[in-house]
Specification:
Keywords: Membrane, Transmembrane, Transmembrane helix
Shape: globular
Number of helices: 10
Transmembrane segments: 12-31, 37-57, 69-88, 94-112, 133-154, 221-241, 253-272
Strand content: under 5%
Protein name: Putative low temperature requirement A protein
InterPro entries: Low_temperature_requirement_A (IPR010640)
Structural class: mainly alpha
Pfam families: LtrA
């Protein structure tokens, strides 16, 4: 494969990632209840996938068509605000938060569509842009119909309602051969994946340091911090040293792998927060 020049990660992309500090904190908070059952775990997994899918789709747009111009600046800042509001509505109480959550999720994809549309108006609509707009347009239609159902109380507020948020994965499958990977800058994607993973590791660092202070739990604190640091070293060795960044490659596998990596790290963070407390007693006493 031919060597390619890395697209530089802009300061606005780094700024955009800041809102995912709040998102990560809100996600781990989903498992901080008196009871952790199937509903709570499914909600946690679904919320992780929703927020990471938004990040991935925004990253792909900026990778392919981002120009660091006024269009990108305004839409990135608007997207940050909407994603932040979305993060504040992660909850197990579906009936209380379903409407605002779906509104902000719909707005997030509306902004993404707007980015593709306005960029297409400036540089011309490629086949990839058109197919991306078709795909995100279907997302918008699905979420808008869900909004109508929630507003008029035609909605089920149980675990089955979570299936709605998996539809984008099914929809995107039918577009996988229509979206172009040739215009993607692989080293830029690798760097962006590293940055979001570092943000997620940051929440893990805070969880260990806060819950295992060395003056109270020296052995556990040192061992867990070392284990976390070892995970980070292994991750960096795989993504920074092992991967050939300067090549033309399909980044799809890398992006989906980071869905799993971030989800796993968030589970690890929750464990670090729950183990020192009484919440680690998941099973009722038989007596």
């Amino acid at each position: 494969m031919s060597e390619i020049i890395a697209k530089r990660v802009s300061n606005y992309e780094l700024f955009y990632d800041l809102v995912f500090v709040l998102a990560t904190s809100s996600l781990t908070g989903l498992l901080h209840g008196n009871h952790i059952g199937l509903r709570e775990i499914l909600t946690f997994i679904t919320a992780n996938l929703i927020i990471m899918t938004l990040w991935i789709n925004e990253t792909i747009y900026l990778n392919k068509y981002g120009e660091r111009d006024l269009l990108d600046i305004i839409t990135i800042i608007a997207s940050m605000f909407v994603v932040g509001q979305l993060s504040l509505n992660f909850s197990h109480d579906f009936e209380a938060t379903a409407l605002p959550f779906t509104i902000f999720l719909t707005l997030s994809y509306l902004l993404l569509c707007l980015q593709y549309y306005l960029r297409g108006r400036k540089i011309g609509f490629t086949a990839d842009m058109k197919h991306s707009l078709y795909m995100f347009g279907i997302y918008l239609l699905v979420f808008f119909l869900a909004l109508v159902a929630i507003y008029f109380n035609f909605w089920t507020y149980d675990e089955k309602s979570l299936l709605l948020f998996y539809l984008p994965f099914i929809i995107s499958y039918f577009f996988k051969d229509k979206l172009s990977h040739d215009v993607m800058n692989f080293p830029h994607i690798v760097e962006r994946c590293q940055l979001i993973t570092i943000i997620t590791f940051g929440e893990t660092v805070i969880a260990i340091l806060k819950n295992y202070p060395i003056l109270e739990l020296p052995l556990e604190g040192i061992l867990l911090f070392f284990a976390m640091a070892t995970l980070f070293i292994f991750y960096i060795s795989q993504t920074y040293l092992t991967i050939d960044h300067h090549r033309k490659a399909d980044a799809t596998v890398l992006l989906y792998a980071h869905l799993v990596i971030v989800l796993g790290l968030n589970f690890f963070t929750v464990a670090m927060e729950l183990f020192p407390s009484h919440h680690n007693d998941f099973w009722p006493c038989p007596c």
